Amino acid sequence: MKLLRLSLPEHPELAKQSLEMLSEIAQEDDVEALSEHFVRGLSDPSLGHQHLLAMREQGPIAIAASEGAQAEFAVAPAFRRRGIGSELLATLAADGIRDVWAHGNLPGARRLAEREHYHPTRELLVMGIEGEALKAAAQVQLADDLQLSTYADTTLEAPEQEWLRVNNEAFDWHPEQGGWDQQRLAKAMDQDWFRADDVLFLESEGRLAGFHWLKRHGDLDEGADGEVYVVGLGRDFRGRGLGDPLVRLGLARLYEQGAQRVILYVESDNRPAVQAYERLGFSTLERHVVYSQSALQGE
């Protein structure tokens, strides 16, 4: 086995083989090993991701993808328990990368983290709602001073600037979602699944009060999940009980268009949000954990 350092967008055949390996891993583990962002980085050079591949003659048997101080990695099922994960982790640490995602927080990942003295420092929940709970949560009424529109049909002046304003007010604390600019928003919209009519705007007297960005994981009529992708309220509209109807508006749209299940991602330590989703009928499906060296070293 040898380790290759490279940028996979410059090596399309290896990127293809890596995607095939990741598909095999997902079938084995019942969870995607890399997040959508890092999967996109296998083919998009503008993201600037760096990659490590553990190679044998037949192709890659493990992959690590990194950006800044964070990384994600996975080992093919047939090559686990051979020290490959430890070697990748040590190589990442030597490169100054100390925060590593474990999607699904599977037993193997927990054992590796404990053995290599990594501690959990962040937990992201995947929550879902379906069946009668989804039908009930999709009921919503708006006050007379509120109007529903979408990014596709809004009459707001400079809607993208309004969208960015509300996003950055809502997520000024968030490491990935906060501090967006026009370029970051454009990149986020540059996805095959993006639909302008799935970005719901809640408007009040010519201002954007909040938005609910939806995502479809395929054809809803064929059983694909819908997703509460991002929900944000503007600073001036907080404390008015608008979060609940804003979420329900998105659930209603997805349910009416055939969604059987809707999922969302939320930080586990955001207890008000978690509890609000639980009251709507959501339950936890998966846990994604960041393991860090710094927790052990007290940095």
Automatic annotation (TrEMBL):
GO molecular function (one): mycothiol synthase activity
UniProt cross-references to CDD domains, sorted A to Z: NAT_SF
Catalytic activity field: 1D-myo-inositol 2-(L-cysteinylamino)-2-deoxy-alpha-D-glucopyranoside + acetyl-CoA = mycothiol + CoA + H(+)
Domain N-acetyltransferase: 9-147, 153-299
Binding site for acetyl-CoA 1: R81, R82, G83, I84, G85, S86
UniProtKB keywords: Acyltransferase, Repeat, Transferase
EC top class, as a word: transferase
GO annotation, biological process: mycothiol biosynthetic process
Annotated binding of 1D-myo-inositol 2-(L-cysteinylamino)-2-deoxy-alpha-D-glucopyranoside, by residue: E36, E176, K215, E227, Y265
EC id: 2.3.1.189
Stored Pfam families: Acetyltransf_1 (PF00583)
Assembly: Monomer.
Family: Belongs to the acetyltransferase family. MshD subfamily.
Protein purpose: Catalyzes the transfer of acetyl from acetyl-CoA to desacetylmycothiol (Cys-GlcN-Ins) to form mycothiol.
HAMAP family, A to Z: MshD (MF_01698)
Protein name stated in the entry: Mycothiol acetyltransferase
UniProt organism field: Corynebacterium pelargi
Lineage: Bacteria, Bacillati, Actinomycetota, Actinomycetes, Mycobacteriales
